[in-house]
Amino acid sequence: MINIMIVDDHAVVRKGLKQIIEEIPGFTVADEASSGNELLEKVKKNRYDVVILDISMPGKDGLDTLKELKGIAPDLPVLVFTIYPEEQYAVRLLKAGASGYLNKECGPDELTKAIERVTKGRKYVSPYLAEVLANNLDAGGEQPLHEALSDREFQVMCMIASGKTPTQIAAELSLSINTISTYRIRILEKMKMKSNAEVTHYAIKNRLVD
Description:
- Strands 2-1-3-4-5-6 form a six-stranded parallel beta sheet, with helices on both faces.
- By secondary structure, it is an alpha/beta fold.
- The radius of gyration is 18 Å and the shape is globular.
- The protein folds into two domains: 2-136, 3-Layer(aba) Sandwich (Rossmann fold); 145-205, Orthogonal Bundle (Arc Repressor Mutant, subunit A), CATH 1.10.10.
- Helix content is 52%, strand content 13%.
């Protein structure tokens, strides 16, 4: 029996995932968590065969959670299951150790296929993400401006583009406002921009925010 941990801050999503998963022969939802911190605590005490992880949660977000999880259980497969478009986080999360990336708009059949693939130790990317990756290769090695950002800078950039204030960003990331201001300066410098409006326009154009 494959024991699966579901991590999502929405109880309705966890319930729906559980219903789908438990219809798959040989799979069972062994546990649930509503935050990254809860997941990390449970992984220290229990054994799971795969984690299905949302990346948008209160407190510690999915990217930070994934990095810490890989430090605790490096061989534990993690399938990221999120509302965010593939262009926004997929490549960063795969580089950070995720076994797969799936958009929540997918159907039950694709979810089943993804779970089966990562539990066999293989990687899973959707057909759309495969196309995104192929297009990046066809671009002749030219990387988008946001690829020059660190993971934290990219995270802050997306939050700025979503219209969040420095105070809101600082609270969500448990950082000081001064630190967020420093990140903003670095983001503008690296992306050769002068204002939040330019960042927002760029993020929308490149489908980095909804």
